Amino acid sequence: MIIVVPALISALLLAFWELWVRARDVKEYLLPAPSAVLRVLADEPGRFAEAAYLSLQAAIGGLIIASLGAFILGTAMAHSRVLERSIYPPALALKVTPIVAVVPLFTIWFGFGLMPRVLIAAMITFFPMLVNTVIGLRSVDPRAHDFLRALNASRWQIFWHLRVPSSLPYVFAGLRISVPLSLIGAVVAEFLSGSAGMGQLILIANGDFDTPALFGAVFVLAGLGIVLTATVALIERKYLFWHDSSLGA
Question: Would you kindly state where each structural domain of the chain is located, as residue ranges?
Fold first, then answer.
C-alpha cells in the first residue's frame, strides 16, 4: 500500500493532465502532454541518464561531505556551549548566503568540474544536518544517562552507546530534508557554472524552446529525489525499528 497508493494517485494526475491538454488543444511549447514528455525520454535515454548521473554524483558527494562535517562539528557543539556559540553564527551565515552569489566564486577557485557542484550541494545541506545532529545528541534519556554514569561508564561509552543511538531519529530527519536540497544545490551550480548535468540540460532545452525535454528533465529530477528519499526511509526503518517513528510508519 505504501507504493501502490502514491503510484495510483500519480497515474490519475498524469491521465488528467493528458486529457486536459488534448481537450483544450494546448500548444506543446506551452504545456506538453505527458505522452510527449515520455516520448522524449524514450528517444534520448542516454542523454538524460548521463545528465542525471552527473547531478546525482554531485548531490551525493555534497551530502556525504555535509553529513560528516555536521556530525563532527555537531558532536563538539553538543558537548560545549562555548563551541556552540562560536560555531553557530558562521554556520547560520553559511545557510543564509545566497547560492547564486557563491557559485561564480567556487567556479573561479575550483574550475568547471565536479568540485564546485559538490561544494554547493554540501553548502546547502550542511545547516539542517548540523542543527538536527546537535539536537539529537542532546536528546538523551536522563535516567539512561544517570544509569551509565552509575556504572562508571566513560564519556566515550556514553557517547557511543547512548548519545549516538538517541541522535539517529534526528539525523535521519535531517537527511530527509537534505536529500532534495542536495539535488537543488547541484542543479543550481550547473545552471551557473556551465557544467554538464541536469542543470545544463534544462538550460539548453529552455534556450531551444524544447518544452518536452524541459519537462523530461523535471520528471527525471523528481524521480531521483523520490528514489533517494525512499532509500533514506528504508535505511531509517532498518536501523530505527525500535523507535516510535518507525513503529507508526
Answer: 57-247
